[in-house]
Amino acid sequence: MKILERKPDKTNVKRNFKKVVWFYDIWSWFTESKAAENVINLIEFKDGKTILEVACGTGVVFEQIVRRNPNGRNLGIDLSPDMLAKAKKRLKKIKNGNYELKEGDALNLNFKDNSFDIVINNFMVDLMPVETFDKIAQEFYRMLKPDGTVIISTFSFGKKKSNRFWFWIAEKFPNLLTGCRPVSFKENLIKAGFRIEKKLEISQNTFPSEIIKARK
Q1: Which among 208, 91, 77 has a CA at the least distance from the CA of 153?
Q2: What is the CATH number of the domain that holds 66?
Q3: What is the pTM (predicted TM-score) of this model?
């Protein structure tokens, strides 16, 4: 199947997430919680690491990062101020949590080369135009320290017939999914210089996800 076209529109993305933020965690629990659990399990936690989550959303995964890396540097960025507000509320329950949450754009990551041990990115690439995929992969590679890892989850095409329902929704009613659609990102990571260490396919309530762990 083809990757559906999407055009870059930051204003529209912010508007879409403002509309869904009130029920986003319910949706995420129903369709993406297994993917989130696998992402967390793939992170090589060792206290003191420098970890960046790009598009941290409401902080579901980021909360676990902060809890498991209490003496490291934990940074979460997101384009949506409404999603960030919910993430900040979630993180307040961690006493003396060591973290920073701020607005940020995946296409303008102003971090120095070799800055992070781990970069996490969940369900963001599937919003982006295909022509930006190489740049995103290259930026992740640039920011990681040597031997650093990136872990990415995306809305995927899936392998089951039932998974095709979501491609149909993404094609016919894109606004219902805030513009997300099935994508493939593995080859972009390889092109950027990454070595793929693990690739998982998950279907949760028929919603298909792919998780990739790759090393610099």
Answers
A1: 208
A2: 3.40.50.150
A3: 0.95
